[in-house]
Write a structure and sequence with these properties.
Layout (H helix, E strand, L loop, with lengths): L1 E9 L2 E6 L2 E9 L2 H10 L4 E6 H6 L5 H10 L3 E5 L5 H9 L4 E4 L1 H5 L1 H11 L4 E10 L2 E6 L4 E2 L4 H6 L8 E6 L11 H10 L4 E5 L5 H9 L4 E4 L1 H4 L5 H7 L2
């Protein structure tokens, strides 16, 4: 399983949000290049980088900095935030990003994202669906988690039949940044229903056993953020745990 240490960029610094709320920001590091280099030195082969300013603004903001990071460190980068057009996807790929993360549009504009998958290739795009519990249903949260989709998670995934998409990142909003463990029941259900997708767990990882649990649920990868920044375990330990 791939460990994706995360860098969330806001005003050029590494931060983390609690439950995706922009009014609950913890600033961890003012030097994202050094942070990314440390991830690579510890054995990480991928990193997950989010343009939080772009996600909030609905347009690319930190793409120049993301390009600097991609050029400075020998590590594959998965990145998104503020991706709203094919030009945004192309710009990130041209900047050296290996895979572009597409969030709200993956749910709200599936026809557009389907075109991107055909144009850029399924290995260059990760569909990112953030969900909130609504009774026994999982509803995608859109536009910085401020709006709810009109369809549930399963209907959203049905718009991408097997063979079209390859990578899926799922975040349980209620666990994001909360260090309460990933939602392995939901992840296992996604893997069961959609074995064609390589699923990445996001939200809640707090200890090494959470990574083991995500792998046991069938996940191909896991995003790790706050647990690393707060020293609960190291990137090296996470990579060794999932090797």
């Amino acid at each position: 399983m791939i460990v994706y240490p995360a860098i969330d960029l806001r005003d050029g610094a590494c931060v983390r949000l609690m439950h995706g709320r922009f009014d609950q920001v913890t600033r961890y590091d003012d030097d994202p290049v050094s942070r990314l280099a440390a991830f690579a030195a510890a054995g990480a082969t991928w990193a997950h980088i989010v343009d939080l300013d772009g996600a909030e603004a609905g347009r690319a903001v930190q793409h120049a900095l993301i390009g600097t990071l991609a050029a400075a460190v020998d590590i594959r980068i998965q990145s998104g935030g503020g991706v709203r057009s094919a030009d945004d996807v192309q710009a990130l790929l041209d900047a050296g990003v290996a895979r572009v993360v597409v969030g709200s549009l993956a749910v709200s504009q599936p026809a557009i994202v389907t075109d991107w998958l055909a144009r850029f290739g399924a290995d260059r795009i990760t569909l990112a669906i953030d969900v909130k519990a609504d009774g026994d249903r999982w509803i995608p949260a859109l536009k910085g988690w401020t709006e709810a989709a009109e369809v549930d998670l399963w209907a959203a995934l049905d718009r991408y039949p097997p063979g079209l998409a390859r990578h899926l990142l799922v975040t349980d909003v209620g666990r994001d940044g909360a260090l309460t463990g990933p939602n392995t029941d939901l992840l296992a259900e996604i893997v069961r229903r959609r074995p064609d997708l390589k699923v990445q767990a996001s939200g809640g990882v707090s200890q090494l056993s959470d990574l083991t649990a995500a792998r046991a649920a069938g996940c191909d990868g896991a995003i790790v953020g706050r647990a690393i920044y707060e020293g609960r375990f190291t990137v090296g330990e996470a990579v060794a745990e999932t090797a």
